[in-house]
Amino acid sequence: MKPPGVPPAELADLTRAEDRISFLYLERSVIHRDSNAITATDDRGVIHIPAATISVLLLGPGTSITHQAILLLADHGATAVWVGERGVRYYAHGRSLASSSRLLIAQADAVSHRSKRLAVARTMYAMRFPGEDTGNLSMQQLRGKEGARVRRIYRENAQRTGVPWNQREYDKADFASGDPINQALSAAHTCLYGIVHAVIVALGAAPGLGFIHTGHERAFVYDIADLYKAEITIPIAFDLIAEGSTEISADTRRRVRDRVHDGALLERCVRDIRMLLLRPESTGPIEDDEDAVHLWDDKGYEVDAGRNYADVGDVDF
C-alpha cells in the first residue's frame, strides 16, 4: 500500500544544486506548502517558491513554518537552517543538502592524517597570503606569520578610521568589559561565525572537525571564518566605532547583515569549503547522483549493501 500524500521526488528528478536558488532567506512570515511550492505569507500577501528551486532555506526572525513545508523541502533534497537576522546567527538546522557522506568522509580523512591536515591548514593560510609561498612553513611559522598579518590589519584600520587601538582583548563571559572597538570586533565575528556555521551544516560537513582550530564543537567554523575577517568584519567594526555607535552589539549585527545581503559571501564560503576538502573536485553539484549505501571492508574498498553475505563462498565464520 502506498503511503498517503504526495510521493517524494525521485533522486534523478531533483534539480541540481547549481540550478537552484542557493540560499533563500525569509523572515517575518508564515511558511506553508501549496502543492509542490513553498508559500511565504506576510502582510503584503503570498508568494510561491517552487521547492525544487531551493537549496537552503534560511529561516530568520519572525518566521513560522509548518510540518508540511518542512516535509516538502526534505522530499526535494533541500534543507532549512534557523538563523538570526540575515543569517548572522546560527541556531539549528535540518538535513544537509548532501545525499552522500562524501564531503564528511573527505573532511574526516584529511583531519585524521597529519600530512593531509597540514596540507589543508597550509592552504588556508595561503589563502590569506596571496602570491606568497607557504608550502614549506611549519605550523608554528604560519601562526607567527598570521599573527603579524592580523596585527598589521588592526593597525591599518585604526589609522584609516582614527579609532584608538591597543590590542585584541576580550572576555567571552563579559562582553561589556571590553573597550568599544573590542566589543564591536567580538559582535562582528560572532555574526560571521553564524553565517559560516549555517553553510557548513547545509553542505553536510562537520563544524567540529577543524584543521587549524581544534577541540571545540565549532573548530571548523572558526577555521573558515578566519578567511574573511580581514575583508569583512574587522573593517566593519572599526567603521562603526569611528561613527560613534552607542548600541554596538545591535548596530554591528545590522552592519554585517547589510554587508552580506547580496549572498556573495555564502557562495564564496561554499566554494572555499569544497576546494579545501574535495581538492581537486571543488566544482559540480553539492549532492551526488547516486543515493546508495555501501559496506566498508577492512581491505580498503566498499562492497554493496542490501545483500546477505552469508551466501558468499569465501566468508569464514
Automatic annotation (TrEMBL):
Name of the top EC class for this enzyme: hydrolase
* Gene3D superfamilies tied to this protein: CRISPR-associated endonuclease Cas1, C-terminal domain (1.20.120.920), CRISPR-associated endonuclease Cas1, N-terminal domain (3.100.10.20)
Q: Which cofactor does it need?
A: Mg(2+); Mn(2+)
Q: What is its EC number?
A: 3.1.-.-
Instruction: Tell whether Magnesium is among the UniProt keywords.
Output: yes
Q: Where is the signal peptide?
A: none
Membership in a protein family: Belongs to the CRISPR-associated endonuclease Cas1 family.
Q: Which domain of life is it from?
A: Bacteria
Provide the GO MF annotations for this entry. Answer: endonuclease activity
Report the function annotation for this chain. Answer: CRISPR (clustered regularly interspaced short palindromic repeat), is an adaptive immune system that provides protection against mobile genetic elements (viruses, transposable elements and conjugative plasmids). CRISPR clusters contain spacers, sequences complementary to antecedent mobile elements, and target invading nucleic acids. CRISPR clusters are transcribed and processed into CRISPR RNA (crRNA). Acts as a dsDNA endonuclease. Involved in the integration of spacer DNA into the CRISPR cassette.
Gene source species:
Paractinoplanes ovalisporus
The organism's taxonomy opens as: Bacteria, Bacillati, Actinomycetota, Actinomycetes, Micromonosporales
| Keywords tagged on the record | Antiviral defense, DNA-binding, Endonuclease, Hydrolase, Magnesium, Manganese, Metal-binding, Nuclease
Q: Does the keyword Manganese apply?
A: yes
Task: From the Swiss-Prot or TrEMBL record, give the protein name.
Answer: CRISPR-associated endonuclease Cas1
User: What InterPro entries does this protein's entry cite?
Assistant: Cas1, Cas1_I-E, CRISPR-assoc_Cas1, CRISPR-assoc_Cas1_C, CRISPR-assoc_Cas1_ECOLI, CRISPR-assoc_Cas1_N
Quaternary assembly: Homodimer, forms a heterotetramer with a Cas2 homodimer.
Q: Which residues bind Mn(2+)?
A: E146, H213, D226
